Structure formats: C-alpha cells, structure tokens
Amino acid sequence: KMTQQMRDLQLAQARKPPGPSSPNAAKRLYRNLSGKFRVNYTSFDEGSLAGRGEKEKLRKSYLFQSNAALFEAVELQDLDRVQELLKQYSPEELDLNTPNSEGLLPLDIAIMTNNAPIAKALLQAGAKESPHFVSLESRSLHLSTLVREAEQRVNELTAQVVNEAPNADCSEKEKQLKAWEWRYRLYKRMKAGFEHARVPDAPANVHLSVASSSSVQVTFCEPLSVNAAVVTKYKVEWSCSPTFSPPLGEAVIDKLQNLHFTIQGLVSGTAYYVQVSAYNMKGWGPPQASVPPFAIPSNWREYDGRAPRRRGQAEALDHLLSQVKTSHQHCVCHEPCKNQPQSRKHSVSKSLKHLFHPGSKFLKTLKRGLYLTAIFYKDDNILVTHEDQIPVVEIDDTYSCLLMQDFLWFTKVSCMWDEILWLRQCVTVSQSSCSCILQTRFKMLLAISQMQGLLGIQDLGQVFFEPIKDKQGNILIVTLKEVKTNQTFESVRWVPICKLQTSRKSVSSPEEPTALDMLLISVQDKLAYHQRSSHALSPGLYLGYLKLCSAVDQIRVLVPEKLPNILCHVKIRSNPNISREEWEWLQKMASVEEPVPAEPEAETSQNQLFQELQVAIKELMTLVNIPLQEAKDFRLYSQEVLDFGDQVSFLLLLPPSDDVCTAPGQNNPYTPRSGFLTLPLQIFELGEEG
C-alpha cells in the first residue's frame, strides 16, 4: 500500500526532479549549473528570444534547476552552496516548501541527517517540514518505505549487472546501480538519524518582562543541549495559574529569526504565568517556566495616575496658531495676500532655473555683515549656482555681531518655513516701534523669502547648530537639506563636493579665511552632522547622562557626535516599558538616604532591572570618562521616565546638583574623550522634538 502511495505521489509531483543519480552526478550538475546561476536570466539578449513566452520558459527552467540544485546541496551537505542559493533566490523561486517526488523537503533531509548548520540556514530562510509527516508513525513508515524500495532497486540492478554481458547497456546499468547505492545509504542515514533522535530539551534563558499595561513579552534561546535533533518551532503558553490549569492561550512560533513573543490583550494588574517549549521531529519537549515566573501588565504612570507629558500639546499649539492667524486675517497688512498665490504651482525643476539666471541676487563674495546660505546635497554632490557658488543671500550688511537670541529665534522660524510670508507681514506692522531686534528679525524673514524665491523651494532644511564667523566681521547662518529624490532636474548643477572645494579660488589667506572658505573646508563635517542628527534609536530603555555647561548668553548640553539629537546614553534593555512595580522600587531607592539600597529579591523584575542598571551605569561612566567611584554621588532622576513615542524611553543619570551645570571658568576634572560636542540647549530641544 505504501509503495502505491509513493507511486501516486510521484505522479502528482512529476514536475519535481528526482534526487541526484550519484555523488559524482550531483557534482557534475553543480559544475554545469554554477556558471548559469551567476548570470541572471534577464541578462540574455532579449532579441534572440522568440517573445515573452520563451523568456518565461527560460525563467522557469532556471528556477527548476535552482530547486534541484538546492536539494542536491542539502543531500551532499554543502553548506556554502546552500547559503549561496538562499541568498541568490527567494523562497518562492526555490520552491522551498514544495515536496519533491519522494515527499521530502530540503529541511526534512537536513534534519534527519542531523546537519544542524544547514537546517538552521533553511529555517532562517523560512523553510518548513513536510506536511506528509503528520505523526511519528507516518514519518517512520515513510522512511522505511524509502529504504526498502531503494534496497529493492539496488538488488534488481545488481542482478542485471551480474547476469548481462559487458556492453553499452551494462555500463548504463552500472551507473544506475551506483546512484541507487548512494541513495540507499542516504535513506538509511536519514532513518537512523530519526530513530536515534529524542525530543528537545527545554528552551534556555526564558525571560518574561512587562511590555505595556495590556501585554507581556517573553524572550528565549534555543536549548543548550546539542544532542537532540534541530528545533523547528516553539510554543508559548500563558495562564493565570502557576500550574497552567486552566491555560489561557498558546502561540506556536515557526519563524525563528527572532526568538521572542509579545502576548497582547491582557488585563492590567493581573498576574500571568508563561512557559515555553521546543519542538523537533520527535515531538514537543518539556516546558520551561519563565524568569520571573509571572508578570503583571502595567506602566510606570499607573503609580500616581500621571498623564503623558505631551498629550494634546501638538493639537493645542496648532489650535493656538490657528487662532492667531484668524485674528490677523483682517489686518491691513494682509490685504496684499489676496493677490498672492497660496502656493507655488511651478515645479522645483522649473524654479531651480533661477540659480542660473544672470539677474539672480546670489552673492559671490561677502562683505562685513550677516548672511544666509542654503546647502542642498545628494550623495556626494552639492547644489550650486550658475557660477559654481553655494547659494548665499544677504540678511543685513550693518550687522556685525550676531546675538545668540537672534540666532535661536531664526532656528525656531526654521520650523515654519511654509509660514514665512505670513510671519513677514505680521512683523511689518510692528516696525513702527523701531526696535533693532524687530528690524533684524524682519530682515531675516526677508532673506528667507528671497532664498525661497530664488531656489523655488519652501523647505530650506535644518539650521546648523552654530553660525560661521570670520575675522573680517562676516557671519554665515547655514541651513542643510538632503535631496533624496532620484528625479533629474533640467539644467540643475550638481557638483561633487571635492571638485567644488578644489576649484574654488580663495580670496583670503589661510591664516584668516573668510566665512565662505571656512564653510567649504568644513562642509563634509556639517553634512555628516546633519545626517547623524536625523538618526533614530532602536527600540528600548536607555540610561542618559545629563551634563550642562553655561556661558554668558547660553547653556549648552553634552551630546555624542554620532547621535547629536540625543543625550549621551547607553542601552539598558530592548524593552522600553517600565512597569509599575519597577517604578515603585526606583522610587524607594531614590528615597533611601544610604547610597546603595538593599538588593531586591531574586527572580523578580525589580532584581532584573537592578542588575541591568548596574551594568549600564558602569558602561556609561566609562563612555563619558568619569571614574566609577565618582558614580556613588550620582543619582537617578526619579520624577518621571522620559518617553519618546512608544518605542524609546530614558532614565536619566544626574551628577551631584552642584555639578549638573558647569559655570564659566569652573574646572571640570572629568572631560569626556573625543566623540562628543556641546549644543546650545535650545538647538538640542529643537532636534529632540524633531
């Protein structure tokens, strides 16, 4: 009966090739196909094909051959070739989960020959076990049938070779005999691998944590034992009872790229117990309870019922701005707006032609004054005018000492590039006061409008955190914007940065370079800063270090160069949520007068956080070059957890209160190593908001 089932299966799967006729035949197939696999089928001359149908046939032929080659690579235990094929083709193109004529999948062969590296590579690519093996008995019967039929075929061919006289047919029979002898040994090895296998041990390092007020997350590792067969899936179970009777739910995880699972839809304040078990071809192994044994969904805000700090703030600001606009819409200063188009209808490519118009008002050289420059870049190229100059417009030719307040006001305006016309008209009304500050800021708005008009682009990008000043009295405010579109603009000049730097003829001496020369010298650093300041942290809980230094007109904050929009930090863990129990423990720790509170009980989430904090503090002190013994005087900010969305949160580590902010002239004995910079606090706040 089993033989008949196998024959029926062979007919149903006729499109699948048989296995390699012999090891040598398989190697020959490898050699013949290896060159073809390295050439994409679309690289052939399409003119030589008889049409789309022929190309599709050619494509299917390559995919058919790649599937056969994958089976052979697994059977020959060629890990490099398996990895090459998995990288070159998608699982769909390889038919990774379609059984061959023997009812086997590549993963079945790897598992039953106990080839763990190949099996894990296949699992990472999304390979499954054959659906024919619904039980241990069916797998055992299937393997016995394969071994018996292969042995029978070997005996038949052996008799034919012995009884026939030497001729061409006999030579062909000998080849078939060798191929079937090899396949007989393969099936016997698979059968022995199955019979000697045992169920897997329990997963290792099963850790449970609170993910939110309605979810918990469990993470785990594969079993430590290497004697069992390869694990192909895991089962997560949860219950309100430590005996798991009754169980509340379970989930099977067969995508093994990341061994973690989040249990959603739980009740806040209820304890949930979790256990994880592993599965291989012999069945499910014993479950492993998590550490800690249970978790209670919660969030630190539940400790005192605190609402999120930023809830409704963006909406409130939008509403306030709308009210201000409404109150000004009937003002006489807005009458000209009726004749103004509400938005630029012309395309960017058309507007950028202004860059090359002889009548443009871009400047080539600087006089004593305040200027605005806009740097647009794409890859290693930078946008320049028709005279190969970075776009520069004048703000004020009588302003030789930029006040920090004016610069910080400019940075705030950069959050409203689309509202410049409206802001300019509002400031116009107030000019009667003859305030020097208002005059300067009105000129800034005029310069922004001029730059936007000449470029035909509203968004000028992000303001660099400090202006460039030279000894000639020039001050240059720099904006940066990356152009990511692949669109090619008509007549636009994109010049390689290195070419612009080498071709510019400096009009200043190396000892006293002008602001423009200083900009070109440092343009790569500014572009790198701009790119790094838009990077985001990966999800998790972080420990941040707050260190300020004050000057006459500003306060600056210490940040890492690699991520200047975030405080100096190290990662505590991947779970960003602080549970109510953890926050309650942190509050108690903050209220203890002794510098080192008692260690929490073992196998609790508080103890896990305690251990993680110890590691993070040591790492952070090393990062900012502070001796570890000084950390005994530091303290955790216990007023709140800083949440940045749902995926990133911060605990703050603060120096002693007298050392949080270094005053001018005050000696700081512990200066961080290279890799840090200080940003004006307002600039940092704008970057953090972004």
Structure description:
- The protein has 690 residues and is of the alpha+beta class.
- The protein has 4 domains: 57-196, Serine Threonine Protein Phosphatase 5, Tetratricopeptide repeat (Alpha Horseshoe), CATH 1.25.40; 207-298, Immunoglobulins (Immunoglobulin-like); 369-534, Nucleoside Triphosphate Pyrophosphohydrolase (Alpha-Beta Complex); 540-591 and 603-685, no CATH class.
- 38% of the residues lie in helices and 18% in strands.
- It has 20 helices and 24 strands.
- The strands form 5 sheets. Strands 9, 10, 11, 12, 13, 14 and 15 form a 7-stranded mixed β-sheet that branches. Strands 3, 4, 6, 7 and 8 form a 5-stranded antiparallel β-sheet that branches. Strands 16, 19, 20, 21 and 22 form a 5-stranded mixed β-sheet that branches.
- A hairpin with a 4-residue loop joins strand 17 (548-550) and strand 18 (555-560).
- Helix 2 crosses helix 3 (52-75), helix 3 (52-75) runs antiparallel to helix 4 and helix 13 packs antiparallel against helix 14 (436-455).
- The two termini are 69 Å apart.
- Residues 1-50 and 334-350 have low confidence and may be disordered.
- Residues 1-25 are annotated as: Disordered.
- This is ANKF1 protein.
- One of its GO terms (biological process) is establishment of mitotic spindle orientation.
